[in-house]
């Protein structure tokens, strides 16, 4: 190569194709950020932030940032002269400089074997402390390869055991973040199930009655699995949403017919009444940051009629045991999935740094 001659990498794909792909990623990132923002806003709307919502919102926000930032930062241009290889970002600054005399080995591995016409090879060059990737998607790949590998050892066979490409690091970090979040969500779900479904009957002495005016009609809503739920909103307590404490009782024993403007009496636990209404008892950590806005209801009365009796709720609550074990299985499954994610991260991190 002539003195001071600089060779620049040339992509086979047009800038239109590249920008189209990155445009989709950036739009996806904006979508993730929007979902994260919505969940964050919801979690911060109450007097105390809701931790599960913050964790979930944080996951979407992080994925959104990664979708936007990583593709932009990964766009690179290579410059090669008679002394060194310079890896530059699209913003013009040098990200990495590799002296040709420091290159000790290289590996060329096939990335896609499904279609011979579209076969892509990744060339990795190594110094004692650095490495750099090139692909056959560069139109002048062979020219770069000839210059960079002429005095280096071919280590391709040894490296075939390792999938070593630029996307590996991104995938590893996705496994790390996803695995950690799944573990937190899974263990959190197990804790919520353990503390909310004890199986013990509720006594009349444990209940305090509160009165309020309905903001909207009471209706029973069903989810995709057929589980039913009721949300009750009262004008006098706008900060809170009330729901029936037993899933089974909601499904079989609660009568509808109460309308907006009706004055009703709800039975809630003494503990929640003292902590959230009179505030004569201190809130614990979990009271503040796990479903602070939601209060379980154990009795519903209006116009001298019982729409939900405590005795009936206690009987039906025994059926909730199946939901308890489903909750444990889902929580344990999420936590286990998180562990596998962390193991994948560790394995990929070790491969990247071989």
Description:
- With 354 residues, the protein is of the alpha+beta class.
- The chain has a domain at 200-319: OB fold (Dihydrolipoamide Acetyltransferase, E2P) (Beta Barrel).
- It contains 10 helices and 16 strands.
- It has helices at 15-43, 51-74, 141-149, 156-159, 166-196, 247-252, 270-277, 285-289, 310-317, 321-352; strands at residues 7-8, 76-80, 84-89, 94-99, 105-112, 120-126, 131-135, 153-154, 207-213, 220-222, 228-230, 241-244, 263-269, 294-297, 299-302, 305-308.
- α1 runs antiparallel to α2.
- It is elongated, with a radius of gyration of 30 Å.
- It starts with 6 loop residues before the first strand and ends with a helix.
What does this entry show, briefly?
This protein is α+β, with helices and mostly antiparallel strands. The protein has helices at residues 15-43, 51-74, 141-149, 156-159, 166-196, 247-252, 270-277, 285-289, 310-317, 321-352; strands spanning 7-8, 76-80, 84-89, 94-99, 105-112, 120-126, 131-135, 153-154, 207-213, 220-222, 228-230, 241-244, 263-269, 294-297, 299-302, 305-308. The chain is built from 10 helices and 16 strands.
């Amino acid at each position: 190569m002539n003195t001071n001659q600089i060779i620049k990498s040339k992509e086979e794909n047009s800038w239109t194709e590249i920008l189209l792909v990155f445009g989709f990623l950036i739009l996806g990132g904006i979508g993730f950020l929007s979902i994260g923002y919505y969940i964050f806003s919801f979690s911060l709307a109450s007097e105390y932030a809701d931790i599960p919502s913050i964790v979930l919102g944080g996951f979407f926000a992080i994925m959104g940032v990664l979708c936007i930032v990583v593709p932009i930062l990964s766009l690179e241009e290579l410059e090669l002269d008679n002394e060194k290889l310079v890896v530059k970002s699209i913003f013009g600054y040098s990200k990495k400089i590799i002296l040709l005399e420091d290159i000790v080995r290289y590996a060329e591995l096939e990335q896609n074997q499904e279609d011979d016409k579209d076969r892509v090879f990744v060339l990795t060059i190594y110094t004692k402390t650095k490495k750099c990737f090139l692909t056959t998607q560069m139109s002048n790949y062979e020219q770069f390869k000839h210059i960079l590998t002429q005095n280096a050892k071919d280590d391709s066979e040894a490296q075939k055991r390792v999938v070593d490409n630029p996307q590996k690091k991104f995938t590893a970090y996705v496994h790390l973040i996803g695995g950690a979040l799944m573990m937190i969500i899974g263990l959190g779900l197990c804790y919520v199930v353990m503390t909310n479904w004890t199986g013990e009957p509720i006594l009349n002495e444990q209940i305090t009655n509160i009165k309020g005016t309905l903001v909207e009609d009471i209706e029973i809503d069903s989810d995709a699995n057929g589980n039913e739920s009721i949300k009750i909103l009262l004008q006098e307590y706008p900060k809170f949403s009330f729901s029936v404490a037993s899933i089974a009782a909601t499904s079989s024993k609660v009568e509808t017919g109460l309308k907006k403007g009706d004055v009703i009496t709800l039975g809630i636990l003494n503990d929640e009444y003292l902590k959230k209404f009179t505030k004569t008892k201190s809130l614990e950590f979990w009271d503040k940051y796990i479903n602070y806005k939601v209060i379980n209801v154990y009795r519903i009365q209006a116009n001298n009629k019982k729409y939900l009796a405590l005795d009936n709720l206690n009987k039906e609550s025994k059926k909730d045991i199946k939901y308890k074990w489903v909750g444990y299985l889902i929580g344990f499954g999420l936590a286990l999935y998180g562990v596998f994610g962390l193991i994948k991260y560790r394995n990929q991190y070790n491969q990247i740094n071989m």
